Amino acid sequence: MLIREAKRYEVHLLKEQRFIAYKTFKEELSPTHWDRLKSSLVSAHNLQPGVEVFVAEIGWDIVGSVALYHANPNTYAADSEILTSPEIRLLAVTPEFRSRGVGKALVEHCIDISKIRKQQSIKLQTGCYMKNAIDLYEKMGFKHISSLDFKPLNDDITIKAFRFDI
Questions:
Q1: Does the structure show a pLDDT above 90 at 75?
Q2: Which residues contact residue 139 at a Cβ distance below 8 angstroms, ignoring those fewer than 6 apart?
Q3: Signal peptide span per the entry (predicted)?
Q4: Which among 37, 84, 99, 148 has the fewest CB atoms less than 10 Å away?
Q5: Angle, alpha carbons 104-108-110 (nearest 5°)
């Protein structure tokens, strides 16, 4: 497996790969939650300065991807949010390549980059329905920071926050 930086011309491939990876959650989510998730999967936010996108390649196929948002006062994660530490977003592994270490390798790559950059921690957020991802993050040493959890639509879906201290 090769972990490498995504090439600019691969943007459409990555959007498709993410959609396939996350489509497994469509049945678990309300139409409103699914529409919000879908729009974030195809968003251009990860094309802005201060965001690096990495892919996992097996053979010639892209089987996983992740976006690493830099800790930078000029990198806006959302309209009003400024990142104070790097953040992992949009981790996506194609269903037939799950449980093969692809997600772990992508997260480890982001941690390694953050270590090199002398960051103190790295953060991520994930939906409560993404149980396999939560298990992975906890096995890797990420700690749940419940004070940063939120419910985007004030219903039973919670977005959980995690931090890994470097």
A1: no
A2: none
A3: none
A4: 99
A5: 120
- Domains within the chain, CATH numbers bracketed: 2-165 (3.40.630.30)
- List of residues 6+ apart from 159 with CB closer than 8 A: 125, 126, 127, 128, 149, 150, 151, 152
Distance CA 160, CA 147 (A): 9
Distance from C-alpha of 105 to C-alpha of 1, rounded to nearest angstrom: 9
- How big, in percent rounded to 5, are the helix, strand and coil portions of the chain? 40, 30, 30
> Alpha-carbon Rg of the chain, whole angstroms?
15
Bridge partners, residue 122, by sequence? 164
Segment 27-60, tens digit of pLDDT: 999 999 999 999 888 876 667 788 999 999 999 9
User: Distance between alpha carbon 66 and the CA centroid of its chain, in Å?
Assistant: 5
Minimal CA–CA distance to 87: which of 72, 104, 102?
72
